[in-house]
UniProtKB/TrEMBL annotation:
PANTHER family: DEHYDROGENASES, SHORT CHAIN, ESTRADIOL 17-BETA-DEHYDROGENASE 8-RELATED. It comes from Pseudooceanicola marinus. SUPFAM superfamilies: NAD(P)-binding Rossmann-fold domains (SSF51735). Its EC number is 1.1.1.-. The keyword tRNA-binding does not apply. Keywords: NAD, Oxidoreductase. This is Levodione reductase. It is an enzyme of class 1 (oxidoreductase). Residues 10-175 form the Ketoreductase domain.
């Protein structure tokens, strides 16, 4: 198979790059020729995640706007431009019922997943707007489309990311900047490790992904491939869209019978 070089000579930022989907995305973009700035709040794991080649890392908590502004200025100083942003950092705090979810959980979850993504878009969006080109891919979730895949705060934060994808795409489209989202289904990563560990410990591994039409769970590289597509010129006329990458999970109502 010929090497794909869609990002040759391009510069990308990936947030939440130390683990799971972000790490796989940084690797994929690097493999396709990009120079990547990997951002994460976990400095130790970040150092382990750098793909082979000439890439940069920066510790950054996306829920802190000052850190976001500093990281984007760092990218500009070293790269001189930003062609792609994988806006991916996220957390899940708990899966509590609406009557039990405390305000701190709401604030923490929205602070990282929604406001953090918005702050990255704000600062990278200014750079891309001035360039007159650029592509952003937000990592939302099937939890933002249907209930049952996360707690109240997590699901609402991801529905917010889908909405943010549409509004930002409308704000930035006139400047040649595209904004899309992926909505992953169940993927084996650090975030879902407790779910996978529990299922394996209790002999229930076959239930993982059983609701997906492909009858399996997904892998970070499969989300990275979709992010790379949406960030590339292959998606040059796609903006404001949220693409489920979920083995068909959201295609069905999964009614019994
Ligand atoms: P992960 O825990 O393996 O990776 C998330 C990374 O984000 C970690 O390295 C973590 O340190 C970093 N991070 C968390 N908060 C941060 C912050 N405030 N600032 C900077 N970095 C921060 O999980 P993952 O599954 O790879 O998650 C990536 C994205 O995919 C998240 O937005 C998550 O909500 C989304 N997602 C995951 C799944 C799944 O099944 N794993 C499904 C749908 C959506």
């Amino acid at each position: 198979m010929p090497a794909i070089t869609r990002f040759d000579g391009k510069y990308a930022i990936v947030t939440g790059a130390a683990s799971g989907i972000g790490r796989a995305t940084a690797a994929r973009l690097a493999e396709e020729g990009a120079r990547v700035l990997l951002l994460d709040r976990n400095a130790e794991a970040l150092a382990e995640a750098v793909p082979t080649g000439d890439h940069l890392t920066r510790t950054c908590d996306v829920s802190d706007e000052a850190q976001v502004a500093e990281a984007v200025a760092f990218a500009q100083a070293h790269f001189g431009r930003i062609d792609a942003l994988a806006n991916n950092a996220g957390i899940i705090c708990d899966r509590s019922q609406i009557t039990e979810t405390d305000k701190a959980t709401w604030e923490r979850t929205l602070g990282v997943n929604l406001i953090g993504a918005a702050m990255m878009l704000k600062h990278v969006g200014k750079v891309m707007q001035a360039q007159g080109t650029g592509a952003v891919v937000n990592t939302a979730s099937v939890a933002g489309i249907r209930s049952g895949a996360g707690g109240n705060a997590y699901s609402a934060s991801k529905a917010g990311v889908i909405s943010l994808t549409m509004t930002a795409a409308c704000d930035l489209g006139q400047y040649g900047v595209r904004v899309n989202a992926v909505c992953p289904g169940l993927i084996e990563t650090g975030m879902t490790a407790p779910v996978f560990d529990y299922a394996r410990e209790h002999g229930k591994e076959d239930r993982l992904g059983a609701r997906a039409e492909l009858r399996r769970y997904g892998h970070p590289e499969e989300i990275a491939a979709a992010i790379a597509f949406l960030a590339s010129d292959d998606a040059s006329f796609i903006t404001g869209q949220a693409l489920p990458v979920d083995g068909g999970n959201t295609a069905s109502l999964n009614l019994p019978g």
